[in-house]
Specification:
Elements lengths: L1 E4 L2 H9 L9 E3 L3 H8 L3 H4 L1 H18 L6
Amino acid sequence: MGNKVSSHDEVEFLEAESPGLPLLGYLPADLRVQEADRFGVPVYEHVKSLRDAAQQIRETLDELTNDELVE
């Protein structure tokens, strides 16, 4: 999994440097994370792109492990 990914070049780097390892996904770099901290609100409520990426990673992990999503 990549964290604070801000470009396609970084995605390509992670993929190239992780041969044979499945990459579950990438969490985007987003300055709204710091904004959420300043406002005292949960990051996943304030930064939709991060929430969506985390959900996609969860779904990918569930597919790889054949587990069902637990709500």
